[in-house]
Write a structure and sequence with these properties.
The chain is an all-alpha fold and 145 residues long. It has four helices and no strands. The longest helix is centred in the middle third of the chain and has 35 residues, at 42-76. The relative contact order is 0.16.
């Protein structure tokens, strides 16, 4: 079991997704709070540094681990069940990656002292990303069609 590449890939896929979602949701909350901070203030500068760290050190690497481990799982074909569930899961994953891309673009705007979106939009993206995550998890577990 300890040398089973499929099991290790599954573990890395699960851990990567867990860290990616935690980082993404934390980043969305940070952005919603950053919006209210005065441009150039010490708090705004701290927020910028925190946002950069979360994106560059936590969220993006976790997303890459999730994608790479997922590709390895697909390549092994272990536990494979036919049907459209995987295509649906991959489509939802692309949408979730799009949310991540929006967050990366917004970090650059916050770093330039812009306020790209309202806090309400970040809260909406938080809900959307959770629904995408829940649907992806459902498809991964039940492979229902």
């Amino acid at each position: 079991m300890m040398t089973d590449p499929w099991a290790w890939s599954k573990l890395l896929h699960f851990l990567g997704l867990t860290v990616w979602m935690a980082g993404l949701w934390g980043l969305l909350r940070l952005y919603a709070g950053h919006h209210a901070l005065a441009v150039g203030s010490e708090a705004s500068e701290r927020a910028k540094a925190t946002e950069q760290w979360v994106l560059k050190v936590v969220t993006t690497p976790a997303m890459v681990v999730t994608f790479v481990a997922g590709v390895v799982l697909i390549q092994t074909g272990v536990g494979w069940t036919p049907g459209g569930w995987l295509h649906t899961k991959l489509t939802l994953l692309v949408l979730l990656g799009g949310v991540h891309g929006v967050m990366a673009a917004d970090r650059k705007k916050f770093a330039a002292d812009q306020r790209p979106r309202s806090p309400a939009i970040y809260h909406l993206l938080l809900a959307v990303s959770f629904v995408l995550f829940a649907a992806i998890a459902f498809l991964a577990v039940f492979r229902s069609f």
